[in-house]
Write a structure and sequence with these properties.
This protein is 37% helix and 16% strand. It is α/β, with parallel strands linked by helices. The longest helix has 16 residues, at 18-33. The relative contact order is 0.18. The structure holds glutamic acid.
């Protein structure tokens, strides 16, 4: 077996659909071709939206598709303390800050920003607060038990890394949305001060995913091009935390007849519905163009 290690990392918030099948088969096929392994990771930090039934269904669907993965399967909801520890490391270096603001206050900050930060690839960019919160106010709010999220301070990261910040790169072996391929400059600043620790669950997709890719020795990240921009941020996190940098391969997304992305709400295209309608793993491969 080679050292090649990738992963398929669904969030069990619904039944897997054709888009997931394409993504899973792309990753599992790549592992087989490289004589490596494809891990299965359950990204269920959103404990409200993720359901054990959907997880069980995902395992069953993937098994039906012919995917094999090493056990044990990592379930992120069982590892909150680890993500918290990573946040503490960043906090100790002043790279993240507590944000107590409501959506509305965030919108006000954005409106008041000197240069309108505009929309980033992942929606509106939060450029950070006009001025940092005083230590007294922060202590008072904590004392009152107010909820907060942890945001990464892009300015602090830039100061911390110096010239290295502008040299962050990753290797793309697939294609970004604009056809980006090969060595790509990471531009985490295009995402603004993103949330690394959500108010509700204390971590975020970005942190948990990057943490786990490092911990699990993932050498190749294969995922949909919708996550291409997240990679710019993930690359920064790897630099800050001293985590290894995998090779990336972002793949095209499956679109429905009207050219829209598949969503979990399209029940008719869930793998279970297709299976019940007589589809086999072979016909399904054909359908997704593999
Ligand atoms: N859990 C993410 C999703 O279902 C995938 C994360 C990744 O592959 O990096 O969209």
């Amino acid at each position: 077996m080679s050292a090649f290690r990738t992963r398929f990392a669904p969030s069990p918030t619904g039944y897997l659909h054709l888009g997931h099948a394409f993504s899973a088969l792309t990753a599992f096929d790549a592992a087989r071709e490289a004589d490596g392994a494809c891990l299965l990771r359950i990204e269920d930090i959103d404990t409200n939206r993720c359901k054990p039934d959907f997880e069980a269904a995902a395992l069953e669907d993937l098994d039906w598709l012919g995917c094999n993965w090493p056990e044990p399967v990592r379930r992120q909801s069982e590892h909150f303390p680890e993500y918290h520890a990573a946040l503490e490391t960043l906090a100790a270096r002043g790279l993240v800050y507590r944000c107590f603001k409501t959506r509305r206050e965030i919108a006000e900050d954005i409106a008041r920003a000197p240069h309108h930060p505009g929309e980033g690839p992942e929606g509106v960019i939060y450029p950070g607060p006009p001025e940092p919160m005083s230590a007294d106010e922060e202590a008072e709010r904590l004392e009152r038990g107010e909820a907060f999220s942890w945001r990464l301070s892009i300015n602090a990261c830039r100061d911390h890394l110096g010239a290295a910040f502008d040299r962050l790169c990753f290797v793309e072996t697939g294609e970004g949305p604009e056809g980006e391929t090969g060595e790509v400059r990471a531009r985490p600043e295009t995402l603004g001060d993103v949330i690394l620790g959500r108010k509700d669950v204390g971590t975020s997709y970005h942190l948990a995913c990057t943490h786990d890719d490092a911990l699990q020795g993932v050498t190749h990240v294969i995922r949909g091009v919708d996550l291409y921009f997240a990679t710019h941020l993930h690359r920064l996190l790897q630099e800050l935390m001293g985590w290894p940098v995998p090779i990336y391969r972002h793949h095209r997304l499956m679109l429905d007849e009207s050219g829209k992305r598949f969503a979990k709400r399209d029940r008719s295209l869930s793998l279970r519905a297709l299976r019940e309608a007589g589809e086999t793993p072979e016909t399904l491969r054909e359908r997704v163009g593999l």
